[in-house]
């Protein structure tokens, strides 16, 4: 099986007929189907599969143990996401194992393929939940209480999927086994198109986080309420949407996005009583990210007061700048014959793990430069090139 043919096997799972692309969310039916598929695929390669206390799946080639070489990614997606973000790293890992087995290679160290749970935060709002729980980066009580848009908690959804939410939390045993972690991922911007290379080595991840702005005002009638009598929370929310662009642009290299905004009750002829919006902010440098959020928070409070509304602002997740392990980066570049290095504006489980163990990433060219959307793409030739590159470096890492 090649990485391309493995992607073909799951091409119909979790298609989103309404939004286009794929919606595969933590512990939903589609993601469950992909998990079952992964286990079956891993077992066909004679890997021993176990699920850790946080719902991450580990497929061991040989005996589990310390100083393990670990590779993998995630199978969940954003709402209406592409086919590659997540699954590419998983299928490439399976393909790499098969390539190495076919040439008779046996790892000299413990070796595992891992699938992390809820990487996108597409359902419960906090990205990289599986790796944050594993590393103790998020409090287990906080994680258990996270709610999806239907009000189902992470604890309830995971219990329904057969996990024990009481066991969620820092897992020093699983973490302690990881010697080095390497994640292969589709490139999410134009980096590799511009470099004319099929594969790059990750160097940094930009500081990033998510903040929830909850505006409340007075729900009312759209026809009977004079403009001067309104306390419409949509007004300060709209001000934040516009300001996010303006403030991010002023930083020169920062990004700020409002991709989700929920008015309640959400009727055309109803002045909303509340509006929740989520700000995704990313600026090189943690201090600059926080400064951008502080500026937008002050502006939100001012705009809310002006409309006679209230606003509450809560940080839902934050990750500081990550620089991947220098030695691993150098080695990856060398083993791949001088692959270029690339920074990323996207967060990854490798970024969370990098705070605890030497971690690195490989990116595979995306000719559309689009990601988190159905147009995300990688040519079959590049996908298989990526899997072979992964096999090459894993062989070096695990010899
Ligand atoms: C992950 O894809 C992110 O949004 O950073
Ligand atoms: Mn193969
Ligand atoms: Mn993503
Ligand atoms: Mn991803």
From TrEMBL:
Residues bound to Zn(2+) 1: 74, 85, 185
InterPro entries documented for this protein: Amidase_Cbmase (IPR010158), Bact_exopeptidase_dim_dom (IPR036264), Peptidase_M20 (IPR002933)
Residues that coordinate or bind Zn(2+) 2: 85, 120, 372
UniProt KW keywords: Hydrolase, Metal-binding, Zinc
Classification via SUPFAM superfamilies: Bacterial exopeptidase dimerisation domain (SSF55031), Zn-dependent exopeptidases (SSF53187)
MF term (GO), any: hydrolase activity, acting on carbon-nitrogen (but not peptide) bonds, in linear amidines
Cofactor note: Binds 2 Zn(2+) ions per subunit.
Keyword Hydrolase: yes
Highest taxon of source: Bacteria
Binding site for allantoate: 210, 269, 282
A Pfam cross-reference name: Peptidase_M20
Cofactor: Zn(2+)
Keyword ATP-binding: no
Family: Belongs to the peptidase M20 family.
Protein's recorded name: N-carbamoyl-L-amino-acid hydrolase
Organism: Amycolatopsis xylanica
């Amino acid at each position: 099986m090649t990485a391309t043919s493995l992607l073909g096997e799951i091409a119909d799972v979790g298609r989103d007929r309404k939004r286009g692309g794929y919606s595969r969310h933590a512990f939903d039916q589609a993601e469950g189907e992909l998990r079952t598929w992964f286990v079956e695929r891993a077992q066909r390669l004679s890997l021993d599969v176990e699920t850790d206390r946080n719902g991450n799946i580990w497929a061991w080639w040989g005996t589990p143990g310390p100083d393990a070489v670990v590779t993998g990614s995630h199978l969940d997606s954003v709402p209406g996401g592409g086919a590659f973000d997540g699954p590419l790293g998983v299928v490439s890992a399976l393909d790499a194992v098969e390539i190495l087995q076919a040439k008779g290679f046996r790892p000299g160290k413990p070796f595992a393929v891992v699938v992390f749970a809820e990487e996108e935060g597409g359902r419960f709002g906090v990205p990289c939940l599986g790796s944050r729980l594993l590393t103790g980066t998020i409090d287990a009580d906080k994680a258990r209480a996270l709610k999806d848009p239907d009000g189902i908690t992470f604890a309830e959804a995971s219990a329904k999927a057969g996990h024990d939410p009481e066991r969620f939390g820092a897992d020093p045993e699983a973490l302690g086994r990881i010697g080095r972690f390497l994640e292969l991922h589709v490139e999410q911007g134009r980096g590799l198109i511009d470099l004319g290379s099929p594969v790059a080595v990750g160097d940094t991840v930009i500081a990033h986080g998510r903040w929830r702005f909850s505006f409340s005002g007075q729900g009312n009638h759209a026809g009977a309420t004079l403009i001067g009598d309104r306390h419409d929370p949509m007004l300060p929310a709209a001000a934040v949407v516009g300001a996010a662009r303006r403030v991010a642009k002023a930083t020169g290299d920062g990004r700020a996005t409002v991709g989700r905004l929920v008015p309640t009750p959400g009727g055309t002829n109803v002045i909303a009583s509340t509006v929740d919006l989520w700000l995704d902010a990313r600026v090189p440098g943690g201090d600059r990210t926080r400064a951008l959020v502080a500026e937008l928070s002050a502006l939100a409070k001012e705009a809310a007061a002006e409309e006679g509304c209230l606003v509450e602002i809560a940080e839902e997740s934050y990750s500081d700048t990550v620089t991947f392990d220098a030695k691993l980066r150098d080695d990856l570049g060398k083993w791949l014959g001088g692959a270029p290095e690339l920074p990323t504006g996207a967060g990854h489980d490798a970024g969370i793990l990098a705070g605890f163990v030497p971690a690195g990433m490989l990116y595979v060219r995306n000719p559309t430069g689009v990601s988190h959307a159905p147009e995300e793409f990688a040519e079959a030739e590049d996908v298989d090139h990526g899997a072979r590159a992964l096999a090459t470096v894993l062989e070096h890492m695990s010899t």
